[in-house]
Amino acid sequence: MVELTGNKLTLEEVKQVCYEGELVTISPKSMQRVKESRKAVERIVANNKTVYGINTGFGKFSDVMIAEDDVNDLQMNLIRSHACGVGEPFPELVSRAVILLRLNALLKGFSGIRPIIAERLVELLNLQIHPVIPQQGSLGASGDLAPLSHLALVLLGEGKVFYAGKVFPTEEVYQLEKIEPIELQAKEGLALINGTQAMTAMGVINWLEAVDLAHQSEWIAAMTIEGLTGIIDAFHPAIHEARGYPQQIAVAERIRKLLSGSNLITAQGEKRVQDAYSLRCIPQVHGASWQALDYVKEKLEIEINAATDNPLIFDDGETVISGGNFHGQPIAIAMDFMKIAVAEFASISERRIERLVNPQLNDLPAFLSAQPGLQSGAMIMQYVAASLVSENKTLAHPASVDSIPSSANQEDHVSMGTIAARHAYSIIQNVRRVLAIECICALQAVEYRGVEKMAPQTKRFYEEARKVVPSITKDRAFSEDIENMNDYLKKNDGGWTASDLKEEEDQISID
User: The domain 203-403+415-499: what is its CATH number?
Assistant: First the structure.
């Protein structure tokens, strides 16, 4: 059970709730803050005090006063009019994360919602009723208005939801689970949709998957080094300590650990003096991507516990401030940074694939073919990898440098953070398939070299991966192999359990 406070949610807890279906509950102190914040909104309404979003219109309509009798209708109209997202829905995993993160933000007690709103969001999570949220339509400032409106719509008993593996009208699921729709009151509609939770939820899922890919890229690269009889000297700790980047040092250490005991690696000058950059510079390139992932993690850890509503209510309602915490720029830049960092795992991987299949660059059978000439082997797999890498270059173009004014120029600078997060997700899917292709080629290369000569760690990975993709003894439709390996990578972690990583860290400190 994960207890939500509004302030202490971790990425690990998000993973538990979203991937493992962990139940959630609300801390009593957080619920008390919610109640106190709601009393402040009710006083504002009773005293007819003018406050944005409570008794005024929205955006360009912020100067339009709303009669007390129409305050509730204002909130209901807001949700229905703003629920205009388009395109394919976010993955259900992301939808679940959106609920979790929006709930956590509301529990900070600055938003003025009634407890029933928070309780309903808990109910949706624990019953695994997840809103169908179209991916396209958010500018990432004034928050993720369109996506979050599709979440809010579900509270009204409207829209559609994922439930029991299918998509249903919310009304049907509510009837089945005996849930009553909620009629929103003052401030609640705005509180539900003014936030960065769509881009942040997508960002958290991105980061969790990207970290797994980063670790997978290392054991796959280690097998490639063995398949190409790579030079281990390039991973000597002195080289990496001389530069000083902790992430680079750590990648080199993990590669050395993976290759410890291998009879397929070589020493400097034994077969050649230097390897190509795609082998020799793995710690430098992968390490730089790890630096970016560390930066992204820092921003996500802040954002998942941030108040991103507008206006925010302080001092028991004595201070109500309209600001811009809904602006997604911090996450937009982080997602753009992530796109570049993750794309590089595929970029250097594709170059390693080329070295595995190109007979001019190695002493292996051409294209790892069982019968070169008669059979093409892995030739076109490299084409596929090159295509995905090229597509990533387009997707990696930063979304955050763009801005189109909205709401009659009242909202004149926006982040496009949700676009950045969506494109990062697409890049991650492409990278995984490139790594799957490298893995298939590396498996074949070490098989030609002699599996019995592999390091114990890489041999363990080899044996597991061979259960997914069999040896290439003749040409076949390799698309299925790529997808099977992709699915294997997606369903598993980085190939290192938490205990493995702890043992590594302990070993590094001992050394």
Answer: 1.20.200.10
